[in-house]
Structure formats: structure tokens, C-alpha cells
Design brief:
With 454 residues, the protein is of the alpha/beta class. The protein has 14 helices and 8 strands.
Length: 454
């Protein structure tokens, strides 16, 4: 009887063992994660990747909407949504290497978010400010807000591997073509009149905007001329060398270029060349001063954000505009001291119909003026949440005042442009561990340089 009972229990025991084996073999390993190469391959085909383990964060429909928005904007923005436990060590660097495409890379990992970019597409300060502006939002809101702001500010072109056009069919019926042709012919005269009327309106608006700018730019040119007049330097003085004389000559040439460019300006965007020349001239004076005083030469930094007439900035300082999010801005030594002491910086104000206002609240015409000073794409990140930043991100802004304000002529100067297949040829200083700029809960670092850890 005992042997019979043991025999009868074998099938149940065998089934239990087989079930346990099946469960063990069928369950994914606890440490399994989608490989970076798999994510990179997906991003080369589409700008948005949602890991199967993170599907609850962003629906397929929402991911498709973001992908269409990025493709329509023709910008090299890559978004990956990953599960909370995904390994973060070297994530951005490895992802950028595996993808091999110059661009802006954003990762939502659980409830944390961060981004990194090649400097040809978006500078470090702009990346840091963009990331900071969307912290704490839900996945959909965060990725939607980040995408909209990034596309308005970044440079470069989308990679060709994404393909062009919409997902719909490409065929057009003969009847549809005939109908379209008839509509075009019938409305040709009216369309031509509308175009002429809109062109005249745009030219009038441009002239009015340039007139407002002319007052401010003339003040800037005069201020720089006064700096040159106060400069106690003569090329033939004792101790002057060729490097000093070259600095001085560059400053004088910048002054002449600024005056000439303003005299030739016909549209608001022409002012960019004027303020860029003034910024170059002030940096030359800063180099000259360092040489004469025996100090190390200054690094090339943008001018003081609060008033470019203060000269090149010496550091970045935290600043929060009224109603906006905190961000770091380049500041001169005097304004850095004021902010550290809890005082207000000395802000450049201009005349508006509402009285004197900071230049970033004075209207869209000041975009080219500021863009010449803050080349290299730094300005969009600085202006997030301000009136000028909002105007510049609106499609109507570019339509009214000309294209190109979003990148201020500074992105991609030299090296690879956004969207280029550059492989592993990129600056590793731009791509470090997760968590530098967004609140990824890791070691410190700089959002823009991918330092720190998730």
C-alpha cells in the first residue's frame, strides 16, 4: 500500500516540477534590459522610442504624435522612454555613440528626465534650462512641453533615415489633380493680390521694427565708441607688442563694421550683424586689457545677459524672471556680486508703448538685436518663460520677421550639423552620465555636459 501511494503521487510531483521549470524559463531575468544598440537602431528609424517595459508612461498614440511633430519640424531630436530601473551609467554617451547622429537626446527614465546635445545643435546652458523648465511634470506633459520648446530653439536638420513626408499614401488621382488645377486658376488673381497686400504689410512692420531698434543700436554703438575713446592705449607706447596692437586693431575694425552694418540695415534681422560686431569688439578689448596687465587671457564667453554693454561675462549665476522658471545666465562681475548680495542686477531697459521695460519684455523686434550678442544658440535657453522667448518660439514670429531667429546664426558653425551621421566623432564632454542637469538623483554635474549620474 505504501508503494502504491508513492506511485500515485509521482504524476502530481512531476507536474509541479515541470510547472516550476516552465515558470523559471519563461520569466525574464530580473536584470534584463533593452540594449542600447536596440534603442539606437529604433531611433535611427523614428525620433521616439518607448521601451516595452515603459509602455505605461506614454501611449502609442502620444508617441506617434510626438514623432510626427519632430519629423514635421525637421530637427534632430531623439526621445527615449525607458523603465525606472534601466542602467544609467554612461547612458547618454553610449546612446549617442550607438546612434551615431548629431542631435539632441532626451530620456525619460521612470519619473526622471534629462537631456544632452551636441553643441552644434544646442549649447549646454540652453539644454540645462530646457530640462529644468519641465521637471516634475507627468510623462506626456513633460515630453510634449520639452519637444515644443526644444524644436523652437535647437538647430540642425533631421537625419535622412527618418524619411520625409507624412505616413499617408503618396498617390494622387487624376480627378484630384484636375480639381486642384481649376481651383488654382480660379483663385490665382485673388491670391496674387493677397500676396502683394501681405508683402506690403510685412515691409511696413519691418520698417517700424527697425526704427524702434535703431535707437537702441545707436546707443550701443555710441557706448562702444566711448569705451574706445577712454582706452588709455597707443600702438606705439612702451611695452606694446604685436598681440596688443592686433587686439586694438580688431576692436577698431569692429566699431567701423558696426557703424557700416547699421547704416546698411533694411530689416530687423540685419541688426544681428551690428551687435555681433560690437560683441567681438568688446572681447578684443578684454583681451587687450589682460595682456597689458599680465593676466591670463579670458575665455570667450557671451556678454552679460542683463546688459551686453557690461562686456563679456565672467561666470554664470542663477536668476529667475518674474513668473518664470529659474535658469543660469552669463553675468559680468558686478552683476554677479549684486545677485550674490540679494540685490537686483542692472538691466538693459528700452522704450516701449508701456514705458521702459527690460529688453526681453519689449517685443519680438529685439530678437535679432539680442541674437547678435548671444550667438551660438545660447539665447533661447536663457529666454524661456519670458515674453521675447515666447514670441520667438511662435511660428508667426518667423513668418513676420524672417526665418532663422531660432538658432541666431550660431548653431553648427564648424563641425557636423544636426542630423549628420557623425558616428563616434563627437565631443564626449557633451555626453556624460544621466542626471547632470535634470533631477536624476545622481551625482552633480552640468546638464549641458552630461556629467553626473542618473
Amino acid at each position: 500500500m505504501k508503494s502504491v501511494r508513492r506511485t500515485r503521487s509521482l504524476p502530481g510531483l512531476l507536474l509541479a516540477v515541470l510547472a516550476l521549470v516552465a515558470l523559471t524559463l519563461g520569466a525574464p531575468p530580473a536584470t534584463a534590459a533593452t540594449g542600447v544598440s536596440t534603442i539606437a537602431d529604433a531611433l535611427r528609424r523614428s525620433p521616439v522610442y518607448v521601451d516595452p517595459a515603459a509602455a505605461g508612461q506614454l501611449s502609442t498614440a502620444d508617441a506617434d504624435t510626438l514623432a510626427r511633430q519632430i519629423k514635421d519640424a525637421d530637427k534632430p531630436l531623439f526621445i527615449a522612454v525607458l523603465p525606472a530601473g534601466y542602467p544609467t551609467q554612461g547612458l547618454f554617451t553610449n546612446l549617442r555613440t550607438a546612434t551615431g547622429v548629431t542631435g539632441l537626446y532626451a530620456v525619460r527614465l521612470g519619473d526622471r528626465f534629462d537631456a544632452r546635445a551636441d553643441s552644434a545643435v544646442l549649447p549646454r546652458t540652453a539644454v540645462r534650462n530646457l530640462v529644468t523648465s519641465v521637471q516634475g511634470e507627468s510623462a506626456k506633459a513633460q515630453l510634449t512641453d520639452f519637444t515644443g520648446r526644444a524644436l523652437a530653439n535647437m538647430g540642425g536638420k533631421a537625419p535622412s533615415s527618418w524619411g520625409g513626408g507624412s505616413a499617408g499614401g503618396s498617390g494622387v488621382s487624376g480627378t484630384a489633380l484636375i480639381t486642384i488645377g481649376a481651383v488654382v486658376v480660379a483663385g490665382g488673381a485673388g491670391a496674387y493680390a493677397l500676396v502683394r497686400r501681405n508683402r506690403r504689410r510685412r515691409e511696413e512692420e519691418q520698417r517700424a521694427a527697425l526704427d524702434r531698434l535703431r535707437v537702441v543700436v545707436d546707443e550701443d554703438i555710441t557706448a562702444f565708441g566711448e569705451e574706445l575713446d577712454r582706452l588709455d592705449f597707443h600702438p606705439a607706447e612702451a611695452g606694446a607688442d604685436d598681440a596688443m596692437r592686433a587686439d586694438y586693431e580688431r576692436a577698431l575694425n569692429a566699431y567701423d563694421q558696426a557703424k557700416s552694418a547699421m547704416a546698411d540695415a533694411r530689416r530687423p534681422e540685419d541688426v544681428r550683424a551690428v551687435t555681433q560686431a560690437l560683441e567681438d569688439g568688446r572681447f578684443s578689448l578684454a583681451q587687450l586689457a589682460a595682456r597689458r596687465e599680465g593676466r591670463p587671457l579670458p575665455e570667450r564667453r557671451p556678454p552679460c545677459f542683463f546688459d551686453p554693454r557690461h562686456g563679456p561675462s565672467v561666470t554664470d549665476a542663477a536668476w529667475t524672471p518674474p513668473g518664470g522658471a529659474p535658469r543660469e545666465v552669463p553675468v559680468c562681475a558686478a552683476d554677479a556680486t549684486r545677485l550674490a548680495d540679494g540685490r537686483d542686477p542692472v538691466v538693459r531697459e528700452v522704450d516701449t508703448e508701456y514705458g521702459r521695460r527690460p529688453y526681453w519684455d519689449a517685443g519680438p523686434a529685439y530678437g535679432p538685436w539680442a541674437g547678435g550678442y548671444f550667438g551660438g544658440g545660447i539665447l533661447p535657453g536663457l529666454l524661456l518663460g519670458t515674453a521675447l522667448g515666447g514670441w520667438m518660439s511662435a511660428p508667426a514670429y518667423a513668418a513676420d520677421y524672417g526665418t532663422g531667429y531660432g538658432d541666431f546664426g550660431g548653431y553648427g558653425t564648424g563641425g557636423y550639423q544636426g542630423g549628420d551621421v557623425s558616428g563616434a566623432d563627437f565631443d564626449p564632454g557633451d555626453f556624460g552620465d544621466f542626471g547632470g542637469g535634470g533631477d536624476f538623483g545622481g551625482g552633480g554635474g552640468d546638464s549641458g555636459d552630461f556629467g553626473g549620474g542618473f
